[in-house]
């Protein structure tokens, strides 16, 4: 026999689930009314992902350089490796372009001003 507490809990959860379904239907109807049916039920991450893929595909199709980075995992090791890659790439590009990447006066001035602004 189901206790009164368990029955009340099940009823509350059912009511919440029904309310969520109604809200989803309302958002879907609103999206359809605005001509945005393709967005109904999607999350912001879905939109950002679709825009990123569309931008890369369009650039590639028009002969523009595109770099896509796919990480096996998003963790400290893989992000650290990616950051190290960009640091080394910056150093090499600087040397190839005749710029000393370790002596940038504007960067140092920016750091000094930032510190001064934060201290006041």
* DSSP strand content: under 5%
- Class by alpha and beta content: mainly alpha
Mean pLDDT: 84
Specify the helix fraction band. over 70%
Report the oligomer. single chain
What does this 3D model show about the protein?
With 120 residues, this protein is mainly α. The chain has 2 domains: 1-68, no CATH class; 70-120, no CATH class. The chain is built from 4 helices and no strands. The chain has helices spanning 4-33, 44-61, 76-96, 105-119. The termini are far apart. 0% of the residues are buried. The mean pLDDT is 84.
What layout of secondary structure does this protein have?
Elements: H1 4-33, H2 44-61, H3 76-96, H4 105-119
In short:
The protein is mainly alpha-helical and 120 residues long.
Which descriptors apply to this entry?
120 residues; mainly alpha; 4 helices; elongated
């Amino acid at each position: 026999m189901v206790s009164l507490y368990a029955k009340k809990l099940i009823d509350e959860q059912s009511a919440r689930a029904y309310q969520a379904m109604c809200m989803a239907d309302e958002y879907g109807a609103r999206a359809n009314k605005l001509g945005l049916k393709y967005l109904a039920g999607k999350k912001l991450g879905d939109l950002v992902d679709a825009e990123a893929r569309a931008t890369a595909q369009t650039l590639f199709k028009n002969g523009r350089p595109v770099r896509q980075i796919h990480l096996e995992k998003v963790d400290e090791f893989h992000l650290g490796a990616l950051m190290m890659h960009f640091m080394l790439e910056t150093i090499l590009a600087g040397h190839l372009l005749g710029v000393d990447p370790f002596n940038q006066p504007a960067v140092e001035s920016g750091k000094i001003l930032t510190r001064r602004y934060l201290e006041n």
